[in-house]
Amino acid sequence: xxxxxxxxxxxxxxxxxxxxxxxxxxxxxxxxxxxxxxxxxxxxxxxxxxxxxxxxxxxxxxxxxxxxxxxxxxxxxxxxxxxxxxxxxxxxxxxxxxxxxxxxxxxxxxxxxxxxxxxxxxxxxxxxxxxxxxxxxxx
Length: 139
What we know:
Elements: E1 7-12, H1 23-33, E2 43-45, E3 51-53, E4 71-76, H2 92-109, E5 114-116, H3 132-138
Parallel strand pairs: 1-4, 1-5, 2-4
Antiparallel strand pairs: 2-3
């Protein structure tokens, strides 16, 4: 990889538990609805725990303004209830895949910093709808 990575940012798709989408649907939202060149995230973790590739990891993401140049974005599908209120409704399979993916990315890039999108400076969002630091400490 030619890009220096010092941060992994965890996001949610802000979709209800009844919605199971993947990278293709999110790519469509980002390209068609936002006019971006590609999906903003590098990885998407579906409700069943499967990991789908998003934007090429050698390309800066479009997921965390001010942090895209040296970060990788991981999106967990879910994160809101049926009324679109923030909710930690991720499946155990998603959390297991997140652990495997994050540990692999940390080892590959010698990167220790992992943050939730909403924990980044200047971001006023509930994303990813769970406390990433508490999750990491529980591993």
